[in-house]
Specification:
single chain; 160 residues; mainly alpha; two-stranded antiparallel sheet; 2 strands; flat
Length: 160
């Protein structure tokens, strides 16, 4: 059974300027609402939230493994590993990353690349010391990893 094409006719209010192009005015205010916070959530905060959610999906069995997850997300398995490595960080560091202040302009204060050597260290005490060094040295963590004697460790292999 086939149906015939239907046409909907309605009137739209608008004024015409110039060559007869209709101009529409929206009721929305031109300035943002006071309830919407300014700035954007730092990327590393969003990635950590994503890692927490993806881990929840894998643990619940909704997604079989990280390879399937990478395929569904249209990213490489290496990228999924980088994101999921954020879950190895100490809980207090994760909390700090989740609640970083919004970036109003310019670059984010911390990037995923800076956190990879930190996540390569499995000892939370050493992670916390490296985190303090990272914050004090404006993102240079490789010198701190060397100070801890981690030259031949996973921290060095992950980008130092």
């Amino acid at each position: 059974m086939t149906t015939a094409p239907q046409t909907v006719v309605c009137t739209v209010r608008g004024r015409r300027h110039g060559r007869g192009v209709p101009v529409f005015r929206y009721a929305a205010a031109s300035e943002p609402s006071a309830s919407v916070p300014r700035g954007r959530v730092p990327r590393v905060s969003r990635l950590l939230a994503l890692a927490l959610r993806l881990d929840e999906l894998v643990r619940a069995g909704v997604i079989v493994d990280y390879a399937t997850l990478a395929e569904l997300a249209h990213v490489s398995r290496a990228r999924i590993s980088q994101i999921m490595n954020l879950l190895v960080l100490a809980p207090d560091i994760q909390e700090t990353l989740l609640f970083l202040p919004r970036t109003e302009r310019g670059r984010d204060p911390i990037h995923l690349r800076q956190l990879q050597p930190l996540a390569a260290v499995l000892n939370w005490g050493q992670q916390r010391s490296l985190w303090r060094t990272l914050q004090a040295n404006s993102g240079r963590i490789c010198q701190a990893a060397a100070a801890f004697g981690l030259e031949n460790s996973r921290a060095e292999r992950s980008g130092c």
